[in-house]
Amino acid sequence: MFVPMEKAAFIINPFSAKKNYQPFLNELKKKVDNPLYYVSESIQGTDEFIQKHFDEVDVFVAIGGDGTISTVARNLINTEKILAIFPAGSGNGFSNETKFNKNLDELLEKIKVKKSRKIDTFTVNERLSINVSGTGFDGKVVKEFEKTDRGFKNYIKVSVKTFFNYKPIKVKFVSEAYQQYNGRYLMMNIANTRQFGNNAYIAPNASKSDGLVDIVLVKKFPLTYSALFAFRMFTKRLKDDDYVTYLPVSEIEFKVNTTNWHLDGEFNKIKSPVHVKVLPASLTILI
């Protein structure tokens, strides 16, 4: 039985899900009569496909990880167009946080009903981020991780190796109100939602609809603390302590002595000074 989907478009990242997107496409074609879909060859190709079909489509479905979702979302900011997700990444942080799963029937049902809500996004030097972005240790991990076959095991391997060799970054805030937090950090994250992905909750109190992001400052900690840090991160219990500081902000500016960043898990080069700004209620997502 076909589900009518005249007003939905499906954008597939062919490099997600270990490059095995064909089963998804086969299932989609069985359940949707002549679906409008695009197997993305590039970010530019995705942008062009969305612009071409913008007027006739109400719901754009991103099939991929946080980077794919962010690429699609970028085209929908401050419009009434709705973002939906079929998670196919290695971490799926944003889709976990917005309650999307790998059940296509459930997704098609949601698209039919078309209920939606607005959430916040933010920019880092005017580049969009929807989930968690950061610099320091995790920016370096993402850079090294992109040289591997991805997957959770490789992420852990790269993380451990990087941790032992990593020199802390220097962060200097522009506003006097935050200068007490100037210093050296293992990593600095900007969290719009609670988790990186793989249920690693870096900011357990972050909300995607409060007009704020959590700046998470993590000092380099001794090996004896690492098990506790990991335990707290995977059980949503990270909190302010000697090594972790949370600063909820709507806008902030700082300098940092590295250009290695990740935006939603994708490696980026970003020069200081860095300006972070929340875009409140700027993205409409399917619920």
Percent of residues in helices comes to 25-40%
Structural class assignment:
alpha+beta
Share of β-strand residues? 25-35%
Distance between the amino and carboxyl termini: 23 Å
* Biggest sheet record: 10 strands, mixed
Indicate the overall shape.
globular
Radius of gyration, in Å, reads 19 Å
User: Which stretches are poorly predicted, pLDDT < 50 over at least 5 residues?
Assistant: none
Order of helices and strands: EHEHEHEHHEEEHHEEEEHEEEEE
Number of helices: 8
The count of strands amounts to: 16
Average pLDDT reading: 91
Mind explaining what this structure looks like?
The protein is α+β, with helices and mostly antiparallel strands and 287 residues long. The protein is 28% helix and 31% strand. The protein has eight helices and 16 strands. Strands 1, 2, 3, 4, 5, 6, 8, 9, 13 and 16 form a ten-stranded mixed beta sheet that branches. Strands 12-11-10-7-14-15 form a six-stranded antiparallel beta sheet. α1 (22-31) links the parallel β1 and β2. α6 (137-145) packs across α7. The longest helix is centred in the middle third of the chain and has 14 residues, at 152-165. The model has no long low-confidence stretch (mean pLDDT 91).
